[in-house]
Amino acid sequence: MAMKYRLRIEVSLKPGHSDPEGETTAHLLKELGYKVETANVSKIYTLVLEAQNQREAHTRADEICKRLLANPTKDNYAVAIEEEK
């Protein structure tokens, strides 16, 4: 019997890759008087999907990241899974 799982996927740039949005954010915060050294931008995706168990849900999350959400050349991703109530 399939269960529903909530996936929280965070996609962020690998170190050494340009983050223009983060750089702009840091610059604007400095102009506003905040003592910010750097800012990094990540995307967070929240998905609910059906799977037989948590292992299958994690496998599907990896597939989703590799096929659509993350570019393996420049992105890292982290997955958190919890059972949907």
Give your account of this protein's structure.
With 85 residues, the chain is of the alpha+beta class. The chain has one domain (3-83): Phosphoribosylformylglycinamidine synthase subunit PurS (Mth169, Chain: A, 2-Layer Sandwich). It contains two helices and three strands. The chain has a three-stranded antiparallel β-sheet, covered by helices on one side. It is elongated and about 55 Å long. The model has no long low-confidence stretch (mean pLDDT 96).
Which properties best describe this structure?
single chain, 85 residues, alpha+beta, Mth169, Chain: A, three-stranded antiparallel beta sheet, 2 helices, 35% strand, elongated
At a glance:
By secondary structure, this protein is α+β, with helices and mostly antiparallel strands. It has two helices and three strands; from the N terminus they run E-H-E-H-E.
